[in-house]
Amino acid sequence: MTLGQRISHCRKKLHISQEELGSRLGISRQAVSKWETGQSVPDMKNLLALAREFGVSVAELTETPEEAVPDTDDVENSPTPPSNFPHRRKSRLLWIILGIFILLILIMLLLSASKPSEPVTPDPITPPINAAEAKTPSSDFALILDWAEDGSFLELGSQEGEYPFGTPLSLDGEETVVKGDNGETVYTIDNLNTGGIRLTYAHMDGQPDTIWKLETAYTKEISTPRGIHVGSTKAEVVGAYGMDLVYCFKEEGSDILAEHDYFYAYQPKEAFSNSICFFMEDGLVSGIRVENMLDEGNEAYAVNNLFIFPIQRNGDPDYSNRQDIYQEPVDATRQVYIAWNQLVTNENLSAEERYAYRRDVFANLPDMDWQEFGKLGSTDDNFTTSEAFMSWLAGQESYSDSEILHIQWGCTAKGLDGAYSEIYDEILGNALFYDPVTYAKMLAYPGVMDDETRCFAIRGAAFYGELFPEQEQTAAKSLDAAISANTLTAEETGWAKLLRYYLANPNDGYYADYPKTPAELTD
């Protein structure tokens, strides 16, 4: 049995993990792992500490050979040793080992003093300890490269030397270089293919490089100093970081490495701007991000009971102080934007919450400003945000009566012109195709729209309907059936006939000479 196997055997007899043993000895889990796998050996200080923890002598732990036992034939003629003889022999061996160890150190010191300029040739059997192996991260805000033989790690903050900062990383993906606000050059380097990590650091001439962000996904061979890695369970994350975690709703963005349902953020007050995010999917860690939040400081993941919540001891969010966003005193445009974002990004909404957010979206369509809506997005192109929202509106599988009414009413909202107007026609058309009879009834809804707005709603739907003649004909037949069945009021029948007229007489959108009210329509 090797020394590493004996260490592993003794540790398991005590029912403790590598991390617990390392904690007792004041070393890292990785160091214990390397002892047990034979990649390195403990020095005398750690041997003594291990022997103390395991309740054995150093000789027993290292299996140092003892004096030969006499042959059985000579036992009768041998003097009987005193009762404490084995203990004295082990103590003597221990002193011999210590003496040899001290003697070797003295010889090495004498050699280095006599030849200061001559480099010491390392032992070819035991490689020299790498600097990264000899130290551990100074904080929680680091990622350890468990796959690296030398136990390398990367940590937020100022670095010694240049990239890759004493690690075996190599650039195997894209490198993005931009200028920062303070004149520094910011590098984002992908080492995802071979290293499993993406890092962002800032360089300024005359100053140490500073790592701002570390990200990993897909690999289990990168961990935090507390032993959490991709694949760790929710319980393990909560057990390692405790009640300092907060629960955050799903984060959107093309630069997010990990698919996730929600994420935990760890940012205690003493960390100030440094943070760790654990992205969770199906109860397991799918990715980790360690980041300096810079100017956001401790506010980056402060509990707001809107998107970020404290947790219960089992890791579930504590919704006891939750606030409903739709009750915030904000203008219609922002209210639509907030509610829409909740619907498309938050998979944890209850049925009641989803209903309330959806109500806010449609009820505020007539009062919103489409140009201002586009500015609320995260892209530089304002139209992209508005286009995404319109695509969501048009893509709904069903519409309630109220939603159809507000879609019609919203066709004359502020800023809805040009390309915005053309895309909005698709929303009108899909609402019409979903339920032509309800569409006609809502045109006649009293006290809401004026005749000009009603005409806009008819023209927009008919213009889009011309692209789909079969669906347009089906809608016209539904209106004919409702009119013939006398199930509509006189007002509803009038607008149903006007709507049917536009559907039955396509004209490539040129409706200038078409009737604008039921009164102008001649049978």
Question: How would you describe the overall organization of this protein?
Answer:
By secondary structure, the chain is an alpha+beta fold. The protein has 17 helices and 13 strands. It has helices at 3-13, 18-25, 29-37, 44-54, 58-62, 85-114, 234-241, 332-345, 351-363, 370-375, 382-394, 401-409, 419-434, 436-443, 451-465, 469-484, 490-504; strands at residues 142-145, 153-155, 157-158, 175-179, 185-191, 197-203, 210-217, 222-223, 245-249, 262-266, 274-281, 284-292, 308-310. Strands 3, 4, 5, 6, 7, 9, 10, 11, 12 and 13 form a 10-stranded antiparallel β-sheet that branches. A 3-stranded antiparallel β-sheet has the order 2-1-8, with no helix packed on it. Helix 8 runs antiparallel to helix 9 and helix 14 (436-443) crosses helix 17. The protein starts with a helix and ends in a 19-residue tail after the last helix.
Task: Quickly list its features.
single chain, 523 residues, alpha+beta, ten-stranded antiparallel beta sheet, 17 helices, 40% helix, 13% strand
Q: In terms of structural class, how would the helical and strand content be classed?
A: alpha+beta
The biggest beta sheet is recorded as: 10 strands, antiparallel
One letter per element, helices H and strands E, the order comes to HHHHHHEEEEEEEEHEEEEEHHHHHHHHHH
So what's the overall shape?
Answer: elongated
> Helix count, per DSSP?
17
In the predicted model, the low-confidence regions spanning at least 5 consecutive residues are 66-88, 115-134
How big is the Rg?
A: 36 Å
Helix proportion range: 25-40%
Mean pLDDT: 83
Proportion of beta-strand residues: 5-15%
Number of strands: 13
| Multimerization status | single chain
| Alpha-carbon distance between the two ends | 102 Å
